[in-house]
Design the sequence.
């Protein structure tokens, strides 16, 4: 599947179906510019208010049973998101 | 005006709604709702028909769900439903109580939040969070949970909460300050000589008798109790029951002396009905005498339990009584607990049952 990005610096973010089901209209793939994972989740929350609470706890940290992969490596909130990164947000098998 | 009864069933895999007319002979099942999230407690507000469901998802954390159209569409929120950075995050919402234009939510680890916008956003009831006993609260088997919220229907300032295993707390000033109300309730799991502490009891379920007055009932890990003074003092009412252990309690909608319990065989004996023969026990005199009723319930090899929020009455006449089992069965009585009928048998493990009577 080819996803077109208006901004080549934007990260391509894949969201799990169990998350998008909670936010009517949210797509499974979205292009977002962000410097790190926290900023990326802020950008998601700006588009779909409440999405940060689903992905992050109040520690603050990415929730225990949610995994964020940036270019194939698991990342925490302060993890860098390079220009054009491939980002996958996945529900962990441990939470199911 | 014809009415219908909705049974709101919270389960490990979402909310289910059973619906019947006033005769309560046949029921239709709808669900699962709330994206099949684990739901600890679902309750309806008879004033506007709104349905609230408190839960928590292992992936996505705690939330309060809400439907204003009878369950067809749901929204969810946890805005503000959080402790301060660095503290143990909230795992799940366990209880919800709408009243006096507000919506109260109890959570794990134990705490109370309130919403003034119908469940869209929340703020902590800081007086309970700051209670000096809180550092000493210990979790029960289900975690450190605030599972019962009892609002005084006549006075918005008065409320009681129950926490496992911290006990009952009362506020008479809208939640600003709280006092433990556990005098007379046992904590058999503490050392000899320390079994009547000011707080630390493992209360399992707290309900208020109908009408004006301060009568409360509680099912405790260690006994069944009645209070006639808003929890200032408690009197044991377990004599005549098959055990002192159980989880749910359901008050009659009009008779302050009537209460329904589901005693289990004991905390350390498997936690199912004595002899694997489920029976609902009813008192009509405030707990002085008890009668067990089993007509229609399986009377052998039935090892299910009933959790703390999984028994309820409705407001019709005669009162309906309902319970949901951890096995996924829902049983209903349309004659005040005298006889029982299974109205759902294969749901997920049931956490809660509440009734909502609305115009048909």
Sequence:
């Amino acid at each position: 599947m080819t996803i077109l990005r208006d901004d080549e610096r934007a990260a391509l973010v894949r969201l799990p179906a169990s998350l998008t089901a909670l936010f009517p209209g949210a797509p499974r793939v979205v292009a977002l510019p962000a410097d790190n994972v926290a900023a990326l989740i802020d950008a998601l929350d700006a588009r779909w208010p409440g999405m940060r609470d689903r992905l992050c706890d109040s520690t603050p940290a990415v929730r225990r049973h949610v995994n964020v992969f940036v270019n194939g490596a698991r990342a925490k909130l302060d993890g860098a998101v390079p220009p054009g990164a491939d980002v996958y947000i996945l529900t962990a098998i441990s939470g199911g | 005006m014809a009415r219908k009864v909705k049974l709101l069933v919270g389960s490990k895999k979402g909310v289910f709604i059973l619906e019947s007319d006033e005769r309560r002979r046949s029921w239709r099942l709808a669900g699962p709702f709330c994206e099949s999230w684990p739901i600890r407690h679902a309750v309806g507000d008879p004033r506007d028909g709104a349905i609230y469901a408190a839960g928590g998802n292992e992936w996505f954390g705690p939330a309060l769900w809400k439907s204003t159209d009878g369950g067809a569409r749901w929204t969810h929120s946890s805005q503000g439903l959080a402790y301060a950075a660095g503290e143990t995050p909230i795992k799940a919402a366990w209880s919800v109580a709408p009243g006096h234009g507000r919506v109260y939510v109890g959570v794990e680890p134990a705490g109370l939040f309130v919403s003034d916008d119908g469940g869209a956003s929340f703020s902590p009831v800081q007086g309970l969070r700051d209670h000096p006993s809180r550092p000493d609260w210990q979790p029960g088997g289900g975690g450190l949970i605030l599972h019962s919220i009892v609002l005084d229907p006549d006075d918005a300032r008065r409320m009681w909460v129950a926490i496992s295993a911290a006990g009952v707390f009362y506020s008479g000033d809208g939640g600003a300050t709280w006092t433990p109300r556990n005098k007379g309730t046992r904590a058999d799991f503490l050392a000899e000589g320390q079994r009547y502490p000011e707080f630390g009891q493992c209360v399992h379920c707290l309900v208020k008798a109908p009408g004006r007055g301060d009568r409360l009932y509680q099912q405790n890990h260690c006994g069944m109790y009645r209070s006639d003074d808003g929890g200032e003092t408690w009197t044991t009412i377990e004599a005549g029951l098959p055990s002192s252990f159980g989880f749910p309690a359901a008050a009659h909608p009009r008779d302050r002396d009537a209460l329904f319990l589901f005693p289990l065989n004991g905390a350390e004996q498997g936690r199912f009905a004595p002899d694997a023969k489920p029976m609902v026990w009813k008192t009509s005199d405030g707990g002085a005498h008890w009668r067990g009723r089993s007509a229609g319930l399986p009377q052998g090899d039935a090892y299910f339990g009933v959790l703390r929020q999984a028994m309820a009455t409705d407001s019709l006449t005669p009162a309906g009584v309902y319970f949901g089992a951890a096995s996924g069965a829902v049983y209903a009585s349309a004659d005040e607990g005298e006889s029982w009928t299974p109205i759902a048998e294969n749901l997920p493990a049931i956490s809660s049952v509440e009734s909502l009577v609305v115009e048909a």
Observations:
- Helices of chain A lie at 17-20, 37-47, 51-55.
